[in-house]
Amino acid sequence: MADRWLAGFVLALSAVYLVATSRLPSLDIGDPLGPKAFPFLVGGLGCVTALWLIVETLRKRPADATPGLAQPPAQHHALAVIAVMVWMFVFYFLIERLGFLLSCAIFLAGLTGYFNRGRWIMNAVVYLGFPVGVYLAFTEILGISLPRGVLPF
Amino acid sequence: METLNAILGGFAVAAQPMNLFFVFLGAIMGTVIGMLPGIGPAAGIALLLPVTFGMEPVSALIMLAGIYYGAMYGNTASAILINTPGTASAAMTTVDGYPLAKSGRGGAALAIAAIASFIAGTMGIIILSLLAVPFATFALRFGPAEYFMLMLFSLTAVSALTGKSPAKGAMSAVFGLMIATIGIDLQSGQARFTMGVPEFLDGVGLLVVIVGLFAVGECLRNVEKWFEGTLKPIPIKGKLWFTKEEWSRSVGPITRGGLIGFAVGVLPGAGGTIATILAYATEQKLSKHPEKFGTGAVEGVAAPEAANNGSTCGAFVPLLTLGVPGSGVTAVLLGAFIMYGIQPGPMLFQNNPNLVWGLINSMYIGNIMLLVLNLPMIPLFAKMLYAPPGVLLAVILGIASVGIYSVGGSTVSLYALIFFGAVGYMFRRLEIPAPPLILALVLGGIMEQSFRQAMTISGANPKIFVGSPICIILLVMIVIAVLAPLVVSRLKSLPSRIAAKSGAA
To answer: Contact, B238 vs B107, CB < 8 A?
Structure first.
């Protein structure tokens, strides 16, 4: 079933892509094709792959109806994945506001606190040591500056 | 004579103390990255690319290549000790390696794997050196139409062969081509598909996509696996060496495996996984005791381990001589070359012999270092398999974030990283292979350029794409690549079929 949805999504995406291509202004100077031809090919190919997948799912049906199917993970797993993405977003939102050291330490403390529960000392070494080590390596050795933020150093 | 001088010059480059250090670094990191399930060489190389920006291109490439072939040593340990391949190309090693470890011969399996990797790797580099110049000379005859067809062949082969479903592989490639068209069209100056984001005028950064798809996507998948618990590694028992009898049984499989691996590695799409399966199947056919395979036969470890190292060397042939990668990892390496302003391909051997031979010859040194590192040190490295998954997850996400920020210099690229991480996660859930996307993204710009050049030459007549013998041969190869999954899908189910058989027995 998921594959049908995927095919539908790719078909829709290709259609949007083709419409966007057709709306590009044509500036074909000394180039018989211009900037649209290749995207048209790609969009067309996208539609073909969607149809191809539909054909594949129709043909496969009887063969692996029961055993091969992977069990869908329970609902709270998907929630955890979304939560980690939100947590990443929080880190990135804070990176220039609080600075790299603080925001990264908070990010890692949160992750290790949940996924490596109870091992306080090991986690502290990670969420304090990693940002400091990376910060020193980037600014002192590699000469790449990272946001300093609210800290004075 | 000229070539011989270039090769010797390459040794001089590879032996510079600085470069020796970077080979060593690459070898160690490759071993670690290969060993840890969940982070493969493609993501590892992408994670390290930002750090290499200030370095000499040759040193950086030597290190990144070291990660690639080093991973082929490292992926063995997790395959043998926790029955989980560190990277996909070690899947075949689990079939006999894990039973060996369970019966207390884990040390022997690891030692045979290290020796097999070393012999096949060294053989592979020698063949690579012999083939490189003839290949490059031949490729000089390619015009834009031939190049377009070659890239199309590579893309078709990778799409058709990397996943379970060729349609999904092709979808992945189409996504990659779509992303590749984002940004300013270099020939007309027209901005395309930027969705109003100024950062996208230069195109979507390759690194963001690779790190997102491979590293972040895998981390998100591991979040789910975390809830399911993890496997505990089997401690290495006994001496880290093998008996004379085990060795004499392994010599043939190592030699044949290395050669098969190299040949398969040259072909786009097939890559390490299929090479290991072919090598394993060959040995099973040749063996007088085929029934022992799957229950802990040393040959079953030696052959695939030789094959995956041979295939790495083979994969360098099209990358270096044609400038067209045939797999996800070599596509990332091509991205690295381009970032340093170097275009691999036939001209590379003429314009930059020190770089290319320095890189190739550094692999001899790298393989020696890996052998030394892996034989006595592997129990030490294997301790990493005990590292808590929660800490690994956090650290990998941390490295990915810093790397992308330091290259992009803005939070826009970080938000894009979350997006591509989510895409990578969905790809894993829906079993869409990621390598075709990366390959298409790296090749997309060059493909469009050669497509338009060819059409300009022919006055917009598409017949130019079948207008030369080389083009026609490539077209036939494309058709073969489209049909290949019919044969390969049977091959790919081999590990599970063997496991099912030996499990039932």
So the answer is: yes
**A11 in a structural domain:** yes
Torsion angle (degrees, nearest 10) of CA A16, B162, B68, A144: 10
Domain identity same for A134 and A95: yes
Same domain, A52 and A98: no
**Structural domain that includes position A20:** 2-60
B170 and A56 within 8 Å at the Cβ level: the answer is: no
Coil, helix or strand at residue B141: coil
Which of B170, B187, B390 lies at the smallest CB-CB distance from A49? B170
- ipTM confidence score: 0.90
Q: Is the residue at A24 inside a domain?
A: yes
| Residue A65 resides in a domain | no
Whether A84 and A130 map to the same domain: the answer is: yes
Q: Which helix (H) or strand (E) holds B184?
A: strand B183-184
Provide, as residue numbers in chain A, all residues whose Cβ is less than 8 Å from the Cβ of B224: 73, 77-78, 80-81
Q: How far apart are CA B106 and CA B101, in angstroms?
A: 4
* B398 in contact with chain A, both atoms CB, cutoff 8 A: yes
What does the pLDDT profile of chain B (505 residues) look like in tens digits?
678 888 888 999 999 999 999 999 999 999 999 888 778 898 889 888 878 877 889 999 999 999 999 999 988 888 888 888 878 888 889 999 999 988 888 888 999 999 999 999 999 999 999 999 999 999 988 999 999 999 999 999 999 888 788 999 999 999 999 999 999 887 777 888 888 888 888 888 888 998 999 889 989 988 888 887 766 677 776 677 788 888 889 999 999 999 999 999 998 877 788 899 999 999 988 888 888 888 889 999 999 999 999 999 999 999 999 999 988 899 999 989 988 889 898 899 989 999 999 999 999 999 999 999 888 877 888 877 878 888 989 999 999 999 899 887 788 999 999 999 999 999 988 999 999 999 999 999 889 999 999 998 888 888 999 989 999 999 999 999 888 887 777 777 777 777 666 654 4
On whether both A81 and A116 belong to a single domain, the answer is yes
Q: What is the count of structural domains for chain B?
A: 1
**What range does the domain containing B172 cover?**
2-504
Q: Which residues of B touch A75 (CB under 8 A)?
A: none
The DSSP-derived string for B18-39 is: HHHHHHHHHHHHHHHHHHSTT-
Q: How many domains does chain A have?
A: 2
| B405 contacts on A by Cβ (under 8 Å) | 95, 100, 146
Q: How far apart are CA B262 and CA B316, in angstroms?
A: 10
